[in-house]
Write a structure and sequence with these properties.
This protein is α+β, with helices and mostly antiparallel strands and about 140 residues long. It contains 3 helices and 5 strands, in the order αβββαββα. The chain has one domain: HIT family, subunit A (2-Layer Sandwich). A 5-stranded antiparallel beta sheet has the order 1-2-3-5-4. α2 crosses α3. The longest helix is centred in the middle third of the chain and has 22 residues. The protein is globular.
Length: about 140
């Protein structure tokens, strides 16, 4: 069973920060930095090439919303948005990494220094902040 499909169906736990009809974003359990999210289509597609055209716009609109929320609520100076297709794709379900960035944060190319959250409470707090930021931005766009 695909772990991301389990998360999308609510069968596996995740700190969800954005949910739309077509996609779901949650905190990465091994983040590059606090707030690092994985954005997935709810339906199973392994790579970007497998995603139907009708899903591309809503998926990347959600990625843009997450990146903007990270700047506003986490104080990020920018973001890193990336997809691994097959090579370095740890879960064979398309996922977009949306990572908050700061100058001199140590992220260089693809040598990613993974970190851990201090504890479950810290992870829940970051997820809540991002949820609130995404909700606020989505409401402002309405």
């Amino acid at each position: 069973m695909c772990v991301f499909c389990g998360i999308a169906r609510g069968e596996k736990p995740a700190h969800v920060v954005l949910e739309r009809d077509c996609c779901l974003a949650f905190l990465d359990v091994r983040p590059l930095f606090e707030g690092h999210c994985l954005l997935i289509p709810k339906d199973h597609y392994e790579t970007l090439a497998d995603v139907p055209d009708s899903l591309v716009t809503p998926l990347f609109s959600a990625a843009r919303l997450l990146a903007t929320a990270m700047e506003r609520v986490l104080g990020a100076e920018g973001s890193f948005v990336a997809i691994n297709n097959k090579v370095s794709q740890s879960v064979p379900h398309l996922h977009v990494h949306v990572v908050p960035r700061r100058r001199k944060d140590g992220l260089r190319g693809f040598f990613w220094p993974r970190t851990k959250y201090e504890d479950e409470h810290a992870m829940a707090e970051v997820a809540a902040r991002l949820r609130d930021g995404v909700a606020g931005l989505a409401a402002a766009d309405s």
